[in-house]
Specification:
- There is one protein chain.
- This protein has about 250 residues and is of the alpha+beta class.
- About 50% of the residues lie in helices and about 15% in strands.
- It has 11 helices and 7 strands.
- It has a 7-stranded mixed sheet with strand order 2-4-3-1-5-6-7, sandwiched between helices.
- A hairpin with a 2-residue loop joins strand 3 and strand 4.
- The longest helix is centred in the N-terminal third of the chain and has 21 residues.
């Protein structure tokens, strides 16, 4: 009955919704989301064993469930740390702003004009053998990596990109992060991949690009300073020595 709903029930529902939304934003687009779905499937299977009284399978799953909390902490330690960091940061408490951004679809696609600006900059930097790494945000938020660099928040422009990665620029060693058709930050620090299958001749930029795409759904563009070629990392894999036309096709998708 609607009349039976009390004020504290509404508050309870809102608090649960906020927590679930925060968990969703932390995991959205990352590999942790797939693990999270796997955990839900495991819990569902455990419930089925109790319903249909499958004793042997239920015994095995119950043993795993007994240490489930510890396993979840180990698996989701990065996400749990970021969750409590957000919880304790005052500026993250703008619930109305969060709600508004949740209701509005985030424009993660790069428009054609900005694609051409990025491709033009990459083609010129490759020709001049200027090393660069550009990370383009997709569904998964890159706030943790943006905060490690210098905030720029400028329109995407090929000359600006070239100037940032110019050899004498103080920001040329870090990564540039592009989000929502804006250059958000430069000089950002990225996680380095420990994949042993990476070719030995590839440097730290390629390993950093692979590292960021292993953790979420971002796209990373790498310009080699030694060879002057363009590479792209996506979903934890590398596409080496691609043409500017191929880069334009990847970004336009």
């Amino acid at each position: 009955m609607i009349s039976a709903i009390r004020l504290k029930d509404i508050i309870d529902i809102l608090l649960v919704a906020i927590i679930l939304y925060q968990v969703y934003t932390l995991m959205k687009g990352s590999r942790a989301m797939n693990i999270f779905f796997g955990v839900l499937i495991f819990i569902f299977a455990y419930i089925l064993t109790m319903i249909f009284e499958m004793d042997l399978l239920g015994l095995i799953l119950s043993k795993v469930m007994s240490v489930g909390i510890i396993l979840l902490v180990i698996i989701f330690q990065d996400e749990i740390r970021r969750f409590f960091f957000r919880l304790g940061t005052r500026q993250k408490w703008g619930f109305l702003k969060k709600l508004e951004s949740f209701l509005q679809d985030k424009d993660i696609a790069i428009d054609d004009m900005n694609v051409m600006q990025i491709v033009t900059a990459c083609r010129k930097m490759a020709k001049n053998k200027v090393g660069a790494i550009i990370v383009i945000e997709q569904n998964a938020r890159l706030d943790d990596y943006i905060e490690t660099g210098v905030i720029i928040n400028a329109n995407i422009n090929s000359m600006l990109i070239e100037n940032i990665f110019f050899k004498n620029s103080p920001l040329h060693d870090g990564a540039m992060v592009i989000s929502n058709n804006k250059i958000c930050a430069a000089g950002c620090i990225l996680p380095v991949s420990h994949n042993l299958n990476i070719p030995q001749y590839l440097g730290l930029r390629h390993r950093a690009a692979l590292g960021i795409t292993e953790k979420n759904d971002a796209i990373a563009i790498i310009i080699s300073e030694e060879r002057g070629d363009i590479s792209v990392s996506e979903r934890g894999s590398l596409k080496l020595n691609i043409t500017s036309k191929e880069l334009e096709h990847i970004l336009s998708k």
